From TrEMBL:
Residues 394-513 form the Pyruvate kinase C-terminal domain. Belongs to the pyruvate kinase family. This is Pyruvate kinase. InterPro entries: Pyr_Knase, Pyrv/PenolPyrv_kinase-like_dom, Pyrv_kinase-like_dom_sf, Pyrv_Knase-like_insert_dom_sf, Pyrv_Knase_brl, Pyrv_Knase_C, Pyrv_Knase_C_sf, Pyrv_Knase_insert_dom_sf. One of its GO terms (molecular function) is ATP binding. It is found in: Cytoplasm, Cytosol. It catalyses: pyruvate + ATP = phosphoenolpyruvate + ADP + H(+). Residues 30-359 form the Pyruvate kinase barrel domain. Homotetramer. Its main location: cytoplasm. One of its GO terms (cellular component) is cytosol. It is an enzyme of class 2 (transferase). Its cofactor is K(+); Mg(2+).
Length: 527
């Protein structure tokens, strides 16, 4: 039986699900982004998350300060060194987020049917009757009948710490609302989300600029997740800011989480290096029945553009439980079958008691979905979209994937300077891993290569199936090997060490020689 995105031999597959599955040594091709926080702060837990399959570490600056995040990053570096893995750092901005700071520190009870006033008057103490916010133009942004959402965390559908408010009227700078569901607001800070309305706050806030220009610059962050991206201009503004602060190599992933972002999605996709479909706020802005089509459309557009796309909010129940629900497991698998490059875990690894289990469980679901992913259908659609005549680089990259499928290769080895060639191969979603051997450019400063090269290599981790390896021209010369011989040896050694390759497996080698790109087939050494 064949589906648009799934290849399923029904008699075999339905029987095989009853057979115990042998654990895979190598993780899924789909990448897992883990948010580090109080439950994933220590070297030991981060190391377990990396071993379980976490590929990217996310630092959420809407919570805690730079000192805390620096401690966590230092622990990440120790953990990555212990397991000998590269791990890119993703800095998540705060963006135009409206917050209620609970100065009383006590719980605030909102009762269904009662009224509550939202006010910019910060001299007021927060209570069940009045909630002060750090934003003076809310009354200008909303009208009677609009929906507001408030809670310590984004709404999951099962918690009682979030409330939906209906705007009744505005009076000066105040907004009077009807509480539609009973909830207890607990904690030092709540987030207020305005559904389907433009909030006149900058996407890149002053706080974000400060964090990026200090913590981000100090740590040479690999990726910045631009929260609440609403237009292509938002991405261009951040790009300009990064360039002015010597962070021109940092990639930008536009986080689309409202209807404004969806309205300008095509322009945003063109400017950004990758996309994050943030279904938390998006699930508030959109009716439930519209979320899935927005997700599928966005993934398809990213796939055709060859840019990584990451999905959030998939296993919310694992914030409190050891296992996801059946619906959540199916949701993860469907995202993989749609073509997502990664799954982002937020509160599951940040504050949930089972961060390692969340990573490993999602990884197993992704791997199982990948085994029935209809790669051929995606490949044909992509080739048709690229058109004829194909650009040279697209032609060679697609040929490498086609050849790898024909000969049942165990992996594709790509020699690259910037990681672009590896991402181009990954665009065609090969069913086998892509080993990106990242070399320094000829004539580059050896003292700068280690830093620059590591950045380019780590960034490859966000693309589905790409696993970067740092190459050294000096090591090749010391060993009396050509660049090609050294790169192949490096890839084979890594592949064997993680259980990806075995003797006599076939490898596809993709490299650029002069102005030409070359694809060839080799067999793994027997030793």
């Amino acid at each position: 039986m064949q589906g648009a995105n799934m290849l399923l031999d029904e008699p075999v597959r339905l029987t095989s699900v009853l057979t115990p599955v042998k654990p895979k040594v190598f993780p899924s091709l789909t990448k897992i982004v883990g948010t580090l926080g109080p439950k994933s702060h220590s070297v030991e837990v981060i190391q377990e998350c990396l071993t379980a399959g976490m590929a990217v570490a996310r630092f959420d600056f809407s919570w805690m300060d730079a000192t805390y995040h620096q401690e966590t990053l230092n622990n990440l570096r120790k953990a990555a060194q212990n397991v000998n893995k590269l791990c890119p750092v993703m800095l998540d901005t705060l963006g135009p987020e409206i917050q209620v700071h609970n100065s009383t520190d006590g719980p605030i009870e909102l009762k269904a049917g009662n009224h509550v006033i939202i006010t910019p008057d910060l001299s007021k103490a927060p209570s069940s009757e009045i909630l002060p916010i750090k934003f003076g133009d809310l009354a200008k942004a909303v009208k009677k009948g609009d929906t507001l959402f408030i809670g310590q965390y984004l709404f999951t559908g099962s918690e009682t710490t979030s409330s939906w408010l209906e705007v009744l009227e505005t009076s000066g700078e105040n907004v009077e609302c009807l509480v539609t569901n009973t909830a207890t607001l607990a904690g030092p800070m709540f987030t207020l989300h305005v559904s389907k309305a433009h909030v006149s706050l900058p996407t890149l806030s002053d706080y974000d600029k400060e964090v990026i220009s200090t913590w981000g610059l100090h740590n040479s962050v690999d990726i910045i997740s631009l929260s609440h991206t609403r237009s292509a201009e938002d991405v261009r503004e951040l790009r300009s800011f990064l360039q002015s602060h010597d962070l021109q190599d940092t990639q930008i992933y536009a986080k689309v989480e409202n209807t404004e972002g969806l309205d300008h999605f095509d322009e945003i996709l063109q400017e950004a290096d990758g996309i994050i479909i943030s279904r938390g706020d998006l699930g508030i802005d959109l009716p439930p029945e519209d979320v899935f089509i927005s997700q599928k459309t966005a993934i398809k557009k990213c796939n055709l553009a060859g840019k990584p796309v990451i999905i959030t909010r998939v296993v919310d129940s694992m914030i409190d439980n050891l296992r996801p629900t059946r619906a959540e497991a199916t949701d993860v698998a469907n995202a993989v079958l749609d073509g997502t490059d990664g799954i982002l875990l937020g509160a599951e690894t940040h504050r949930g008691p089972y961060p390692v289990d969340a990573v490993s469980t999602v990884g197993r679901i992704c791997a199982e979905a990948e085994s029935v992913y209809n790669q051929l259908v995606h490949f044909k659609k992509l080739v048709k979209h690229v058109g004829d005549p194909m650009p040279h680089e697209e032609s060679v990259a697609s040929s490498a994937v086609r050849t790898a499928m024909k000969v049942k290769a165990a992996a594709i080895v790509v020699f690259t300077f910037s990681g672009r060639a590896a991402r181009l191969v990954a665009k065609y979603k090969p069913p086998m891993p892509v080993l990106a051997v990242v070399f320094p450019r000829e004539g580059s400063d050896p003292t700068k290569w280690r830093s620059y090269g590591t950045t380019q290599a780590r960034q490859c981790f966000a693309a589905r199936g790409v696993y970067p390896l740092m190459a050294s021209t000096e090591e090749a010369e010391t060993g009396g090997l050509t660049r090609e011989e050294y790169g192949i040896k490096l890839a084979q050694n890594y592949g064997r060490s993680v259980g990806m390759l075995k003797p006599f497996d076939r490898l596809i080698i993709f490299q650029k020689i002069g102005d030409s790109s070359v694809v060839k087939i080799i067999e793994c050494d027997s030793s």
